[in-house]
Queue: 2 jobs
Job 1
Amino acid sequence: MKVSGYQLFWMVSISSMIVFSYLPIHLAAEQSLQDCWISILLGTMIMLGATWITLRVCMQNKDKTFVQFINDLIGTVLGKVVVTMYFLLWFMQMSFIAKGTVEFQNLVMLHNTPMLFILLCLLFLVLYAVYKGGITAISRCAEIIGPFFVFMLYVQLFLNPQDMDATRILPVYADSGLLRILSGTLHSFNYMVDPSIILMLFFFAENKRSATRGIFWGTAVAMLWGVVSTLVLLFVTGPNIAAELVVPIYSLTKFVSILNFIQNIDAFFIPLWLFGAFIKLSIYLFILSYGLSEWTGYRNWKLIACLTTFIWLAYTIYSTHNIQISNTLKNRYLIGLCYPMVYIVFPLFLWMIGLIRQRRKPSSVN
Amino acid sequence: MIRFVLLTCVSLLLVMSASGCTDFIEPNQLAFVLGSAIDHAEDGTIEMSYQIVIPSLQGGPSKGESSGDSAPFFVMSAKGKDVFEATQKIQLKMSRRLLTSHRVLIAISEEFFNKNDASKLFDKLSRDPANNLRDIIIMIKGGSAKEFLMIKHPLEQLSSIAAGKELDINGLKGFSSRELIIDSLSRGIRPLMPIIQIEDKKLSGKKTSPIAALSGFAVLNDRLKVKGLLDNNEGSAAIWMQGKGTFQGVTMPWKNGQGTLSFRLTRLERKLRSAPGNDPGHIVLMVKAQAYLLENTTPLDMSEVKNMLEVQKHINEQIQKDLQLTMDKIRQWGPDVFGIGEFLHRQYPYWWKSQKDDWDEKFKTIDVTVKANVRLRSTGTSGAPLE
């Protein structure tokens, strides 16, 4: 199973944009109102940095997957514990994206269709892609869906120029101040991009150098989109409405009215978001089951994928019945501790260990 | 291979039809709502009315007219504790599902604003995905909003479409519900709302029929209560100073009562700046426009440069005087429909922090000077008046 740098570009940009269009803008705007674009901008910088560090770590361990090289770097026991944290993170992301997608469909379009049915269709499709073709199938899908998805999401931002008023982001800084801007960043940056998926995906890259470029540019394209869409949202709705919009990009499509004729174009975007969610979920399912198979030593990762899907299905259904569990996204420990750990601190730590070992090697040879 | 293809086809069919079992709605199962009306009802409830299109009676305007009494729409209404409850009561009496996504207008009666907290309506507009925030919100005076929906328009098929077009064709943009919500949530600007009045007019022959027409603007305060009403002339002055207008017409008397001059004003702009000395208490509001002379009943020969300059000077003085009058009138009422608070908020953000509470009262003490900069672009296609 090999993936090209071009395919990685699309996979990373789709999977970042799909979450970016949903969570971070709302979380940032709640904190810093009209300055949330600064929060988002800072967040994208942090995430680009995190991606860069993660890529450094991957380049140091080109020929191994995450599960293998972490054992080399920090020992088997500690390595397994750390990897478990990542597994939990991926599983949590999977279930909340699946749940978010399905509940959104129920809210907006399919009022009476049972939620279970939509969920089953979605999970079946994801499992099918992963089971039949693994990462190859996913990357090919991403290659086809990517250009449409990214292009349409960018175009959508410029469909209501008549409603935009750039003065709505003024005054800059004075109202919220540094503290609230930073708190906006802290609340939102975790959901902009998930650099931890690269740790697993990089192993499958055909050409490591072009893969690095692809991943970095994929992240950059998604981050740019995030900043521009935050600005556009503020231009169109002003800070007070923006802070309350739970699905801001969807609401933005509803404002579009071209010559009083082309309206209600959200129906075109909902399938696109479904495509995006499909790519994101398949990537997660693949890396989770592949990682688990390496972690346990059980070679048949396809079987693990099936089992994971069952647990995933059960957990998602359970979490929809338990409001407490399903709304933990703003949990203080999650935001302040867990995400920064897995996205920034661990990769940084691994990179440093890698650097030290590289230094040591030539000296030990001499 | 054949088995695989068969299996795929069957499962595809199953999947595609499955959501149809529960959520398939054909266009002939939908009732298109083009206008909503909200009225005050006793005992703390509100009355919702929906103007629903009858598709079989839709056609060209002439066709609608010839069919006599049958209008191409009907109005359903019900009372409820909130919008949803009232809507649900209407839905129960309908054979088709109400579709509000294409609504163009929400009419709210003046009484409703005065007796209810109208900002409670905003939640429904932004929470329920079946709403779009593109529809225009207007206030109905001299009758209930429900009555307005029932009125037939001589030119358009529905009164709500007519009112929307009326605003649009007169260059009055920016009265959508989105902008109303933005204005009422910001602390430094208050909403200005178009008023539609229902009057009996003799349109043709002996018959008098009620007609709904734009008759000014309402100035609302921060709790969306009506603080004052502006007539059409004052209204267009306020719109210009608010920065929302795009074009308008103006007629002014010439000196010594020697006839009048009428202009078309285009490219309306306004700029705010604080007076020299950077004092937030003194604001200069600068309005800009380009004027085209279209009627002249004065003895002036407009082909002479001297007269042109004099007319240009006269327009500026006159407009400055008129706008200042409107400005002072609204300033006495209190609500800052011009967004001067918002301007100060952006210009002096730290000063604003201590001033933003109770802005309606403080706005009364702000000194706003209106300055006009209107350029005479053209004097029309004739020089001296033809006499």
Job 2
Amino acid sequence: MIAYNKILLSNMLIIKKAKQWFSRDLIDGSQMATVLTKYPIEYFKPNIFIKIGLFIFTLFLISAALGLFSLLCVGILMHNDSIQGYSIVVSVLFGSACIFFLEKFIKWRNWYSNGIDDALLYSGLSFIFSAIAFIISDDMDDENGFLAMCIVYLPFLMFAAARYIDRVVTIAMMICMYCIFFLMVMKIGNAAKFIMPFAFMALSTSFYFIVKKQMALSSRTHYNGCLKVIKAIVLIVFYISGNYYVIRESSIEFFRLDLSEGQDIPLALIFYAFTALVPLAYLYVGLKTKDKLMVWVALLLIAVAVLTFKYYFSLGHPEVTLTIAGIIMIAIAYASIKYLVTDKKGITFKDDPNEDNFLKTNAEALVIAQSFGTTAQTTDAGVEMGGGEFGGGGSGNKF
Amino acid sequence: MNVTDQLVNDGILDQEQAVCINNFEREKPMSVHWELKIILYLGILLFMSGLGILVYINIDTIGHTAIIAAISIACALCFYYGFKHRKPYSNQEVKYDSPLFDYVILLGCLLFGVLIGYMQYQYNVFGLHYGIATLFPAALYLSMAYIFDHKGILSLGITGFAAWAGISVTPMHLLEYNDFSSIDIIWTSIGVGTILAGFSKYADMKEIKKHFGFTYNNFAANILFIALIAGLFDEGYMAIAYFLMIAGLVFYYFRYAVAEKSFLFLLLSVIYGYIALTYVFFSLLINIGNELSFMLGLFYIIASCAAIVLFFIYYKRILGIKK
């Protein structure tokens, strides 16, 4: 099923693990050397920036090829008024070409995730999808057309995600699945508005257990990245489908719920509790099971929960909230760092020794420059207290 | 198959070691290093923004002395902590064990910036010399960056220095806030960029804080390239000079990227260089104004993109980088 060379993939995994063990003195130097020679990873693995460059310029190349092709076809277009037919043909042609080259390069050159293959995959899929959109869009109304489109896209996305173990395609696949599910439930009619949140929760829960089961299988090692992405999405969707803000606003938007002043949605209290407690539960489970992904999702959702409550129960003083929130966060981080000076229950503050810190520390400096940096001063009297006043543009001017 | 099982099968690990490794994999602690650092950083960001607005809104009610006193005390506390725990200066990288240290210094420097700005606004301590009001904190930041070996404060100092010269170099505002159609801004930017790159080069040769090189050059490269390309777009009689300068800069950063193995600079030079080259090529094409020129343009894009893709594929061989 997987297009890439499987030996290469498992060798990469072995070497990654071996490096971690070597950095912690679990295996010695001669063993590490044997691992490196015994499991060669002879393939083109460029630096991350080179990868970005390859991705960008491959996309340029494909668009320029499309432009040139269209230019050559202007003559045909002149005599034939079916723009739609032409678009379908071109999309199919370019889509197949992209996928063809992708397959060939993987076979010939043993490529894996070097920017070019990603660019080819994404543009190939986009071409195929636009061909499908051109075919479908004409003879159906908006909603049904969209549903039909999603249903046709889904097998392509599933196949691509499985064959090219690509995380971005996996995200698209999940979004597509949830869209189909949403539109299907909408078809029920009036009862949909009561069912929707619980239906989404139920679907996400079942996905979660499927993913968990798949992750435990050793035959799915290569899909680990994709499964992690699915897990994160499923956790987020589970939360979002019970979030107070989402329920309230979507009830008004999709189900024309009329809320007069002082009125609240049904079961409001339960949804408030859900909004506040689920992220904390995620955080607890994440820390308990040493699941970093879950911790990240939990942190993100805690921010969402805070914003939700802030939206409905605002004190009207954003600056006070900001200052207090800042102090609370500093205090929490400070206390946790002090607490974790020694490892507690399998959690540590020590950085993983084998992680590449160069990018992180340098990125940190840029983020600091971005958020606190001084923007240019002009000598006009009017802006004499511009940028630098409160330590930067982030605060001084915008609020 | 499990990695340890496979290594045992292939005779690289013995059974004992495999058990040991499996135990480690099961027991290994989860590191929340970066998570806590990000929370701490976001906390400081929110706190500083909130404090800034709070002071701004209540400037008439709290009383200036109280505000200045509170900020000064907080700032002094931060620097007191900093100097107490400070390690002696060295030209090499100095690492602090406490992760909080960096953030305390950052907070102290930011508070100092607020203080200076406030005093200038309220009491005009620097009079009409607005330049000094910007240069003073920038100079402090730069020296603090060296004293405490802090890249974040170094980048604050650089933005402050550039702001004093009259340009915004914060990463997102480089294009947004600067009016590159003005020739003054272009030359100021070229000046600032050259000073930064030149100083970094000098410091590298003298082996002074070599790990600051990335921060200096990242600012310098972006300012210089954008200013030069803006000059090129200006289409004056100087266009050819700007083009040559861009070519020189591309060459400089190619060498820098190879020497420092910092391929961000390779990517930056290729992208900016490509923009300049394409611009020149297309303006020549438009001058010719032939009906074939559009097609020629498309051929140029295809050929040049293919060439760049090939260059990136074989960059190690072309630039002579050993593995």
